[in-house]
Amino acid sequence: MAFKTITVDVDDHVCLIRLNRPDALNALNTAMLRELAQAVDEAERNERVRCLVLAGSEKAFAAGADVKEMSEKSFVDVFTEDLFGREAHALERCRKPIIAAVAGYALGGGCELAMMCDFIIAADTAKFGQPEINLGVVAGLGGTQRLTRFVGKSKAMEMHLTGRFMDAEEAERSGLVSRVVPAKKLMEEVMTAAQKITEKSAVAVMAVKESVNRSYETTLSEGVLHERRLFQAMFATEDQAEGMGAFVDKREAQFRDR
Ligand code: DAK
Known about the structure:
Could possibly oxidize fatty acids using specific components. It is an enzyme of class 4 (lyase). The longest helix has 16 residues, at about 30-45. The protein has 12 helices and 10 strands. The chain folds into 2 domains: about 5-200, 2-enoyl-CoA Hydratase, Chain A, domain 1 (Alpha-Beta Complex), CATH 3.90.226.10; about 200-250, Lyase 2-enoyl-coa Hydratase, Chain  A, domain 2 (Orthogonal Bundle). The protein is an alpha/beta fold. Helix 10 (about 200-215) packs antiparallel against helix 11 (about 220-235). The chain is about 45% helix and about 15% strand.
């Protein structure tokens, strides 16, 4: 289907979704979040897709939820519509890996969207922030929870309370992003990372994602046990035999997702 606020391209097993509202610095409105949720669902169902990439433009990943759209809403509107709740679940429940490619502003809902992805690669131009406090509200897409887990209480609290932006270098130092690359090389680096993931066993990739995410939801001992069971379960796959056999034979593994 043709989308109006995003673009979607599937190439070489990677689904690249770009937020595309350049006049509003990719501010997330209802239409865009619905299209994004649909695109993620479609990529999840598309057997050709083995990894997703979510990107914005050079100037902005996304400058937040659309303040102009939100400013018209009442409590009853946002409560009964469950503003963005359903759309956010599409990303949260996706079992394929999603990489966020962040250049420019990733603010408010934009920062939260990037944090919902599995990891963030940032351009040296990236700026992260949770400036909802300046609008008289609090973050609503998980920012107080996820940013705190990424960067710790002190930095998260400062960013949420003052609205201060964090540059790419500070974001890498604080563990918010996996690495920073020159803006001109951002998409090349992200697509190379995505490509590497597509070459692995999709079963093992899914298990890694599930296990790392588990660490946010459970105690250490339960998480370690869950990981051990997943590791053991991998021995029921052909890909485990292929991967280890290929290592022993000194050849490239040919994974078949079986
Ligand atoms: N919403 C709507 N339009 C935006 C926007 C936004 N968040 N950010 C930028 N724009 C628009 C500007 O209005 C401007 O449009 P025109 O005036 O040209 O029509 C255009 O994009 C270019 O922006 P600027 O002229 O301001 O560009 P600058 O380079 O001077 O400044 C900036 C860039 C990013 C520093 C500035 O635009 C800015 O401060 N933007 C707002 C950032 C912000 O406050 N973001 C947080 C929004 S609140 C929830 C889920 C999510 C949320 C809440 C609830 N539930 C599930 C319940 C999330 C809330 C938020 O994200």
